[in-house]
Amino acid sequence: MTSVTSLHGPSISPASGRAVRQIIILLHGYGSNGADLISLAQHWRHAFPDALFIAPNAPERCPGVSGGYQWWALSAFTRPALAAGAARAAPALDAFIDRQLAEHGLSEDKVLLIGFSQGTMMALHVGPCRERPLAGILGYSGMIADAAGLAGKVRSRPPIMLVHGTDDPVVPFAALQEAKRELHRLGFDVTDHSIPGLGHTVDATGVRLGEEFARRVLA
Length: 219
Known about the structure:
It is a single chain. By secondary structure, this protein is of the alpha/beta class. The chain is 34% helix and 18% strand. The protein has seven helices and nine strands; from the N terminus they run ββααβββαβαβαβαβα. α3 packs across α4. It is globular, with a radius of gyration of 16 Å. It starts with 10 loop residues before the first strand and ends with a helix.
């Protein structure tokens, strides 16, 4: 039996002090870590007082980056390499979601999956392949890792929002339109937002859009 890496990372408990009623999982980008992305929780805690925010570190250390992790090595940015990398990392994220659901006694419709860059690739790769739909998937500055293979793996269709800067030098802005077309073709409810002049980051507009989406799907 192949072992599955157990993911761990920083978390922020519900601001209300009550039991966890929602889980917001934040998936960082290549070379980053959970401690970086968990900072988004500070913007949204007031809106979701009963939510647990948790940002797992990716399963692999990122070579040459102190404190950095990767979902898979980005030694090649070809379609086959992206698809293979996402597939290799998927079981660890799937198991992490299952563990959080079991620990807090919640169902998938109480889970929002948020990704940035490579984390968005993971969210779009794992979320639709789960048997029961998550509350939603929010992807910043990302793309579909396996556009060709996703059609045969879709098992559920949570609502999706994609946010991307028009001046992103890392993941081209064109990836937003490609992801939107493919997801629409597969029957997903997709909302997309382009942010003029923005590079490879999340700005105040993206934070606001994310909160609006989260309010809608976690209502």
